[in-house]
């Protein structure tokens, strides 16, 4: 079985296409040919279609629902309302955040677009026509869209179901629209340092409400097999196993009788983590009718009703010495959660990992308090391409640093440099309780500043300001700096769970006799390229070519239990499980090789794709040889076959970081901002596939551009969504997307088996403050301290206007 | 995003299309590229019982240039306008404008006839047609009539076209001059925050003729005679352009929307009108 013509060691490494190889994405063969298989492509015999009747009002009592006209439409099979779901106790459902939410309106509606009735018909068009005929009598109630007004004494009561409940899932509720107060850090010590500090900068930083808006909206096909009692749900699920468990708990169907399948998913970005009323209604409708039921939301439904992101009002205070050493940081957040607390955070973290807000800086003492508030807006608060509330935290600290630099009259790059956690301080204990695993911020920062000629840019900016003052130009130059630190890879089971499920992840590997393999994981790719990159991890671990390894995810009947893909957790957790399972394969392979070579296990050493007898390089067995032997040799004390499974409980999170710099031209007359240059340095630890990393960075930066420069979910004062279509909700095309320059440093995670940290979300986390800081920086010479995102044309124009730059 | 049921008609000649409109009255609407009508139907903001698709009527397509006389069939797509070399020479502003409408996919399907006939104040071609002093041909049950673009619009989605008429073509005299269409929008696919068309003729060093029109700055396109008059006879110096911009701003009344409040739009309009005038003058 050995190769006839020996090839070089380098060639053998190359053949594996393992770690560090810019292997082309295997998924793209089908995606670029339109051969993906998405949930809406699924057509089952006899399938029915569901459509929602949604509330046009943000707050109203539902006095009656008349479904007779809808039921009379030929082809309509059922019209479900809360009344129909109540006997099953499914008119409400638990949220991931310890709250509950209505599946269908139970007596009242609390946000525009809320689900009121579910029409099921034998044709999608008939369902839509019938939905128009459901007559609902509403009595409008006063609307609250401002979280500060929601907490005023006389504010309308939104959640009548919680009447009299003074404690919630996360402690005391001090007002009928208050959800929780979550705190971390030492408040007394922080306040004391701030009150006696040489310099204090105080600012309200708002991170507006936006939406992940994946290209594919949410949907499912629920199919109850009445003969064998098995429920199969195909859907857009970022966490299929969690959906299976939730479905079992809600429906009472035993978990082995439920199969959840995530087929190809057209982007998730956190939008597809939670459980939505559409899933519950489709499942109930399938059980009731005995037929498969498909529900697919349209774009407006996606933007108005399924999970939003952000909406954090962050009041910050940062204290420093006169020479710029930061001494304390404090933040109070008013968090607008909408009508139900449906954030998708680990259970014990109602504000996610917002306490990473000390960022890349060595801040001795800090405190954060987050008040969750109910308003008449859609529920959600998901981690839109970031680990839980990490992008809010990164935006907060990177704005506060800029504001402090203004207060001190200091260069913002230098202010960052003197406050960075130093390389020798890792592992670093942050004031808010995190242990940063590794980092080398000064090296990354210096590399970035040199790459863009920072001093030269500052000179150009100063010249521009002078030219502007002389009336020679109407454009200003902004230099947007960001050094971010993320916390990803949730997470250690001891403190991270979703509905009680520890946030481990898993990988199961089967090596086939002829030397190829299948690996199944508990995660699910939504565009990340897992089939490409996890095969590379495994190729380097077990010495079989990545091209000979199939990666499968998303089918709960075959994949090992895992917590899914979000929060950049796939590589830190499932990627680690993959490496560990690979090592189990290799350990067994070593015993087989020893038997075949008639030596002791300890006399062998691993070399790329084979075990070699120490000191006798001509005596070896490749992994391919060993795979075959494992199926056809009776080896004493060794079971036949070559398989392994690993459930990996990470000992810590990983802490990717990066240095981003945006150079922006700002037209003060029109508010138009053009990105002239964007430099992104990422340190995600060990780099698995540089090409995939670059693609991730490009995509994340483009989403960050969207968020910073125009993308928002805006409401008017009576709770109408003003940005419910892609005309008003900014989704950049190639036209709006600037050129990006990517770069890297490589600081491996000390606790991850291959040192990888995750990268998919870094560009969103770091990109938003970089773009926003560039806008702010353009106006620094004219006195701007803080202006809220999104920086669309009119808001930028208004900055200039308010600063008197329009003459 | 699913429309109510409707009947689909696809006539192959104008007479058949007019007959269908006559038969179903205000329950029928013609569809050209469909970029305005179909989304409104999907949103169920327009319930149309009978959709009359004009795409198979060959007589409504084409671009003819005879000396300075230009005729463009209503069903000519924006893509075809952009690609037509003769048109680019006769009236380059048409290509410049069409290239600023949405994206290539939209322009492959969207037509100039639909763009001008729908009466949407966000559409770019109506103001351009006013700037060019174009004439629209409307065919109805009793034959054809012609209406000047500068008279055609009465309000948002309200025009002089009767329900039983079809806009079949556009004609104008291509009389040259420096031409420019300037547009500010939030992104590809958006309507203008402000847009302006300018055509200026130069005689020696002075402006001999000027036509200025604006998009999405009122509930219909605005041709500002006063703005043009302010430039004629001048050398288009800074003060002259100031006067023209002031005159143009006197003729608009923008509405607040997600693009921004009125104060912002008026300010941006002034900038965009000025840029259009300066660009057109530089090209004159």
UniProtKB/TrEMBL annotation, chain A:
Enzyme class, broadest EC rank: oxidoreductase
Reactions it catalyzes: CO + a quinone + H2O = a quinol + CO2
Domain of life: Bacteria
E.C. designation(s): 1.2.5.3
CC cofactor: Cu(+); Mo-molybdopterin cytosine dinucleotide
GO molecular function, one term: iron ion binding
Aldehyde oxidase/xanthine dehydrogenase a/b hammerhead domain ranges (all copies): 33-142
Physiological role: Catalyzes the oxidation of carbon monoxide to carbon dioxide.
Alphabetized NCBIfam families for the sequence: CO_dehy_Mo_lg
Protein name, UniProt field: Carbon monoxide dehydrogenase large chain
Organism phylogeny: Bacteria, Pseudomonadati, Pseudomonadota, Alphaproteobacteria, Hyphomicrobiales
UniProtKB/TrEMBL annotation, chain B:
Any one Gene Ontology molecular-function term assigned to this protein's record: oxidoreductase activity
Residues of the FAD-binding PCMH-type domain: 1-177
Keywords tagged on the record: FAD, Flavoprotein, Oxidoreductase
SMART domains: CO_deh_flav_C
Listed InterPro entries: CO_DH_flav_C, CO_DH_flav_C_dom_sf, Diverse_Substr_Oxidored, FAD-bd_PCMH, FAD-bd_PCMH-like_sf, FAD-bd_PCMH_sub1, FAD-bd_PCMH_sub2, Mopterin_DH_FAD-bd
The protein's name: Xanthine dehydrogenase family protein subunit M
Species whose genome carries this gene: Jiella endophytica
Lineage: Bacteria, Pseudomonadati, Pseudomonadota, Alphaproteobacteria, Hyphomicrobiales
